[in-house]
């Protein structure tokens, strides 16, 4: 047989899948993959269930149900003061993941340079490469995760088609501040580049930090592709309903990619998400407060178990320096070790870098029930006290 396309097949099985499988084999508390262990708001699920019975269940419009596009435009007005034309500036996708693919495939031409900030969510690099883009990597590093401005500036040039920005950032928990965002905006304007703004964790931001969409910066409305995810907003990661919000002309080629990839997203889920986006402000602030409480339980517990815990300003994640408990090995060995010996699973941060020189940090997910987080920390404490 002739070989398959080399880009995707050059990658192994996703690290999330590998660690989750290992977690299953050992029956551990899995804090490796970031998904909540509860079912999500019952009222929203009820709308979805009723909609599947009542119908319609045939192809919804390619851009998404009007009521959902209207709800997203209204969401962006309510939280960010954005004026969005729901008919031309909102695209519904099958999850934030599809939105990433649509933006990259819709905009990047073979030979275009794309600037990525690592560590990164693992879909980014394969998609850029599959689109024929040339990846220019810039890195933020633990423990401070500071934006390396000189390196970022050096990575941009006239061939830069797109900058991929993820804030709040997975896996670091960093929320880019106004000053950093301004720096990125200036580079995008200087080099006439698009910015794909992966903001799936927009509502999971903790006290002291603020999520500011880059598209709200002067001159950035035409350049930014803002990505959102209902899976994250409503704690139902399996739902795979996402969005791209962008100026009409910027969105048009992205909608074409969507048209040729999934075309639509299940109508009952769209209906339910439209209902959910209309929830009162207290729902959205409650989500952040709830997860901040969980971050604190996990961070305190990990500290009590002897770990040096890195600051987390948002997302589902808390990172630790594994050297602080005297572990003599790299992060992959550490994650395998605690899975087999302590009954807890985490994710090696090195897996989210393209190089392998950051090897002493592990990512734990805090989006679990409190008693599960407490038990996980207890197990780690018991293990490393030996
Ligand atoms: N971007 C980031 C940074 C993510 O963490 C995720 C999901 N973990 C996605 C995109 C994909 O979102 P969805 O699950 O809605 O496809």
Quick take:
The protein has 386 residues and is an alpha/beta fold. It has two domains: 6-40 and 282-385, Aspartate Aminotransferase, domain 1, CATH 3.90.1150.10; 42-279, Type I PLP-dependent aspartate aminotransferase-like (Major domain) (Aspartate Aminotransferase, domain 2, 3-Layer(aba) Sandwich). It has 15 helices and 13 strands.
Your description of this structure?
There is one protein chain. α4 (66-80) runs parallel beside α12 and α13 packs parallel to α15 (370-385). The longest helix has 24 residues, at 281-304. The termini are far apart. The radius of gyration is 21 Å and the shape is globular. The strands form three sheets. The chain has a seven-stranded mixed sheet, with helices on both faces. Strands 9-10-13-12 form a four-stranded antiparallel sheet. Strands 1-11 form a two-stranded parallel ribbon. The chain has helices spanning 6-9, 15-26, 42-54, 66-80, 86-89, 95-107, 124-130, 149-155, 178-190, 230-233, 248-261, 267-277, 281-304, 331-341, 370-385; strands at 29-30, 90-93, 113-118, 134-139, 160-166, 194-198, 224-229, 242-245, 308-309, 317-321, 344-345, 347-348, 361-365. A hairpin with a 7-residue loop joins β9 (308-309) and β10 (317-321). It folds into two domains: 6-40 and 282-385, Aspartate Aminotransferase, domain 1 (Alpha-Beta Complex), CATH 3.90.1150.10; 42-279, Aspartate Aminotransferase, domain 2, CATH 3.40.640. The protein is built from 15 helices and 13 strands. The protein is α/β, with parallel strands linked by helices. Bound molecules: 4'-deoxy-4'-aminopyridoxal-5'-phosphate.
């Amino acid at each position: 047989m002739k070989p398959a396309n080399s880009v995707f097949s050059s990658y192994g099985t996703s690290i999330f899948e590998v660690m989750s499988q290992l977690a299953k084999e050992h029956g551990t508390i899995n804090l490796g993959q970031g998904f909540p262990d509860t079912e999500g708001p019952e009222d929203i699920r009820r709308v979805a269930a009723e909609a599947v019975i009542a119908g319609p269940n045939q192809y919804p419009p390619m851009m998404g149900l009007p009521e959902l596009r209207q709800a997203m435009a209204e969401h962006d007005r309510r939280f960010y003061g954005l004026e969005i034309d729901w008919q031309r500036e909102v695209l519904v996708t099958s999850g934030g993941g599809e939105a990433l693919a649509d933006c990259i495939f819709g905009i990047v031409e073979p030979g275009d340079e794309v600037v990525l900030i690592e560590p990164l969510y693992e879909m980014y690099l394969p998609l850029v490469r599959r689109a024929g883009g040339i990846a220019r990597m810039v890195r933020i590093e633990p423990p401070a995760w500071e934006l390396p401005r000189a390196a970022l500036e050096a990575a941009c040039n006239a061939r830069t088609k797109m900058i991929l920005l993820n804030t709040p950032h997975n896996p670091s928990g960093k929320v880019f501040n106004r000053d950093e965002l301004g720096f990125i905006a200036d580079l995008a304007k200087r080099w006439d580049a698009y910015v794909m703004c992966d903001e799936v964790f927009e509502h999971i931001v903790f006290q002291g930090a603020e999520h500011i969409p880059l598209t709200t910066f002067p001159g950035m409305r035409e350049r930014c592709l803002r990505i959102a995810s209902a899976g994250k907003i409503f704690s139902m990661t399996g739902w795979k309903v996402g969005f791209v919000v962008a100026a009409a002309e910027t969105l048009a080629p992205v909608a074409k990619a969507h048209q040729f990839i999934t075309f639509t997203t299940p109508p009952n889920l769209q209906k339910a998400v439209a209902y959910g986006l209309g929830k009162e402000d207290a729902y959205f602030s409650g989500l952040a407060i709830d997860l901040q409480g969980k971050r604190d339980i996990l961070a305190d517990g990990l500290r009590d178990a002897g770990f040096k815990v890195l600051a987390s300003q948002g997302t589902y994640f808390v990172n630790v320096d594994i050297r602080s408990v005297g572990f003599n090995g790299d992060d992959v060995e550490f994650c395998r070790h605690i899975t087999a010996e302590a009954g807890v699973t985490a994710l090696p941060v090195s897996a989210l870098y393209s190089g392998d020189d950051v090897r002493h940090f592990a990512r734990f997910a805090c989006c679990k029930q409190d008693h599960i987080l407490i038990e996980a920390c207890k197990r780690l404490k018991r293990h490393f006290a030996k």
